[in-house]
Design goal:
203 residues; alpha/beta; four-stranded mixed β-sheet; 39% helix; globular
Length: 203
Amino acid sequence: MSPATQRNAPLLVVISGPSGVGKDAVIAKLRETHSEIFFAVTATTRPMRPGEAEGRDYLFITPGRFEQLLARGEFLEHAEVYGRHYGVPKGPLRDALAEGHDAVVKVDVQGAATIRALAPDAFLVFLAAPSFEELERRLTSRKTDSAEQMAIRIQTARDEMEQSKLFDAVIVNETDALMQTVDAIVEAIRSQRADTSRRPIAL
């Protein structure tokens, strides 16, 4: 039975973890194999890039519209990065949960802490690498940063790994075992769904 077809209240699932751990690949495979789950799309004020699609990669909105939603408290979490705003809208999540679908949000570790404060009943999943050495290898293999930038990324990843104890579940994304990771996440969702003491998510 798929997670979203069980009878208990649907889950707000927050998937986080350090940079380089493979969050995007895991989410993509999860989306591909579990269409019954709703996946949140982040809103942004930055321009659309070649190859991107509205509603698939991001929700592209104007700064004015972003400010309106922010003033109404309509973002689950938000951040400013290099002068552009990013936020996870609550509306589509509320709709999905009301329809009985589990909803998945991908955020960084700081964003997960923000969501925990706003929605204490959310299910927080920390995606970890098999070892810090492997995480460092994944980061350096990208070859997109200067040595200074890479050193910052590695230290940030080390700090983020220490936050795993604040999450409800820690799932190791083993190297070259993507489907195994996805199955582990789905099993964790299924287990949470079976807990009849959980309260419905209120956003």
